[in-house]
Amino acid sequence: MPDRTGSIRPAKGGFKTELRDFVQFVKRPSPGPRLPRAAMPSLAADWIGGVDARRIFRWVLFLWGLNLLVLGPLAAGAAWLLGADHRFNPVDLPWFLALAWAPVVEELMFRLGMRRPGAALWLVPAFTAIVMYGSGLYTGIFLALSLALLAWPGMPGVRWTFTWNRRYRKAFPWVFHLLTLAFAVLHLLNFNLDALVWWLMPLLILPQWGTGLVLGWMRVRTGIGASMLMHALFNAGPMVLVWLLMQAMPADMSVPGL
Questions:
Q1: Does the global pTM surpass 0.70?
Q2: Into how many domains does the chain fold?
Q3: How is residue 47 annotated by DSSP?
Q4: Is residue 28 part of a domain?
Q5: Which of 53, 156, 231, 252 gives the lowest tally of CB atoms within 10 Å of its CB?
């Protein structure tokens, strides 16, 4: 139950309690309430106040298991039927893209606006530039300037009237699930697709969809900083695994398909 500050009171049960809350949230998404977090100004709390290393790591382990045992095999089967090759190059691992750029940009693009929809509008030009030109120095500078504008006191679009807030709450389930779906669909760009079998496309992005649901819950319940850290740690698992496999391979052995 939420307390007077709008936070959920701590409950016994640990991860099981959070898992039940996540399931209920996915069924009926709402922009609140929050899990307990550090007492500090709202902007700072959204970025660092909700970061709980133990909670985040538990959920990362859960997602790794879910994707390895359930969603990953389904996506791999769909990729085989579609003849889809992943653009991922195990010889030249994109560490910066996977562990820094993607977690920051994708969380801002798809999940910042879940609780700050007015502020998110200021990032639209930056997102457009990133989609058009990709990661780089100039898009990074543009993104940093856009974030600086959001931190400017009195920036228009950050606050909402009660009437609009009430309307947004009614629309939030649609907002949440459409943004999660868009996040998953974006990852189709990671594949080279030879065949367009549309009914198999959802299976191809099942891991991103499931991960997006958890990241969205984490963002709403704790803050944008927690979802970014969780996103980065989740990406780190496959990257480290591939790196270890590459180190174990004989130097004269080629990688199939490269």
A1: yes
A2: 1
A3: I
A4: no
A5: 252
